[in-house]
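Pilot study result, target chain (540 residues):
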Amino acid sequence: MSSRPYAVIIGMMGAGKTRVGKEVAHMLRLPFIDADIEIEHEVGMKIPDYFDRYGEPAFREVEADVIADVLADFEGVFSLGGGAPMTPSTQRELASYIRHGGKVVYLDADPREAMERANRGGGRPMLNGDANARWKKLHAQRDPVFREVSNVHVHTHGLTPQGAAKKVIDMVSQRAVHVEGAAIDPYDVVIGEGAMNRLADVLGPKPAKIALIHTQPVQRHSDRARTLLRQGGYEVSDIVIPDAEPGKTITVANGIWERLGDEGFTRSDAVVGLGGGAATDLAGFVAATWMRGIRYVNCPTSLLAMVDASTGGKTGINTQQGKNLVGSFYTPAGVLADTTTLSSLPNDIFIEGLGEVAKSGFIRDPEILHILERHADELRLFDGQAFLGSPLEETVAELIERTVRVKAYHVSSDLKEKGLREFLNYGHTLGHAIEKLEHFRWRHGNAVAVGMVYAAELAHLLGYIDQDLVDYHRALLSALGLPISWNGGSFEDVLALMHRDKKARGNKLRFVVLDSIGHVVHLDNPPADAVEEAFRRIQH
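Predicted structure:
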């Protein structure tokens, strides 16, 4: 089987493709190939001489053949010449490489730095004449194409070659889930160390002002986001909201609307939500309602937010009557799940996120459950200070990616929760009732864990699943450190709240239950005695 490059680096002349590529290869102990040097070996002369003798079309033909050969059978870092991605056959080769999991890195250097390096290097036939004018003209032609053919965009302004190489490695190792579907503007969920570095790329050049909405506990991460935004040339309004569910109220939203009005936010400006699920829910709601919808990006900082709240376009606030009853379906421009932020999470807040991860395993992807089983001890003993660089980091990144893929599958065909998307609510009917009765002192993932055990008990009572699968729910969730029972309220109180659930139809209860691992069904209007008996079974 043929091998493929770790990364392919493209960019303008003088962007530092060779220097940075060599640094990346050195840091990773991989081989490095420069396409121009390979071409000179192939034709037996220097590129300027070949250009003079045979012309650009002949050169591009040789270049395309060399690139195709290297892409098919090379495992290192591969740097292309400045004009190479403009050739249609090379564009097709790069697209195929990306489809097979490859990373085409557009090294986007500061124009002044790049022009100076290009002039200093000499031997560039494309810059004959007024070199700076030619460079600018070529940049205008090539930049849109480079953005189109690459799937990793690395700004290197002001970075040393070593700094740029480290940034390339971080961004290449990140995972991405593409979310698209009916009524959805496509966007990516990027997962991994340094994902937040993509903030300016996702926001784009249009916004001038950014409302950075965050909570106090994530100050360290919001400071980093603010720095990145200012480096990107944006004017930043820093908006701190109360932590967790108290931040999701109409009062908080109204205060932000007033600020946006006072500070002259227009339809072309944007919102960045940074924090846990409550912060990203509120930020999305503000973005959806300001001027009937402005661009927004989510930067989730908790495991729960990364796997749940930040993806899928559900935004909302709580009212006295319940959770998320006021809101909008409004998709973000992107989600940047930067795993470095997990290093500041307390153990209990990390663990509650595993409730939503397990849910995705139960409803669609059994491999999630196998990973949770294999790593239950390490996950339960999560220590943020020891997390980065540990083997657990890669495990958690895979769990996040798989969970987001489950969510993307359900959301892509049902943005507004008319059918398939409701299956994401496995464990939520009782879970939301527990949260309300506990005045939101219980964390969402913990309430969902108990809700899944309840749903499993109900499914078993009605003959959908066997006792072994109920026991498996209890054993796995317990091994992860999640609760599997609850004694905080009466059945009558719970029943009243379950009737208010968004899945309920008229006066009839509606549950999501399993009929096997990885397969869910709707359960409409189950017998009242089974609903009560299942509740009794989660009280001890």
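One observation from the pilot: The chain has three domains: 7-173, 175-409, 426-537. A full batch analysis is planned for the follow-on phase.
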